Here is the input.
Amino acid sequence: MTEETLEQKEVTPVEEPETEPSPAGEPETLRQQLEEERIKTAETHDKYLRSVAELRNYKKRISQEREQWAREASAGLLTRLLPILDDFDRAMAVLPDEKLRQLSWVEGIALIYRRLQLALEQAGLTPIEAENQPFDPYFHEAILHEEAPAEQDGIVLADLQKGYKLYDRVLRPTLVKVGKAAAEPPPQEEEQEEAADEKPEEPAE
Here is the structure.
């Protein structure tokens, strides 16, 4: 092919594809859609957090209820064991002398007593302190009152039967003897006595 032929050949220009102008409102529409998606995402995240919190609260409530059920179940058993513990307390309190305490069978009973106390403590049982403490009707039950000095008024003088708590609940109140201050004489009697002393003597006839 000669050079003249190349020059005479028409070169067809390559036409670029026409691009349609974007609508004027499209950026605003995209912003609205983006905001709607952001709100939906925030709502979904909030629902997720609420669901997680509700699940945790549910598990915590179930765990607490199970613990409460276990305590209620053990409370009945421990209540039936308290008279046996009382018998051990009385038996160990009346041992006559140290020689008897050194006997092997007495030491064996004392060992059983200590193991019973330890088992009950591990189950949540604790004794209620009463002697020389102010009387508290929530923990103590007064069955005797004894005249006492004013400073011992309302004070527990003796522990007649030991009480116990199961964790923070009173399983059995302590039976106690409470001091009661002596009643002072009514002021009217004192005034009458003073008036009789001050009364002038009648002249003798």
Remarks:
- The first helix runs from residue 3 to 8.
- The mean pLDDT is 78.
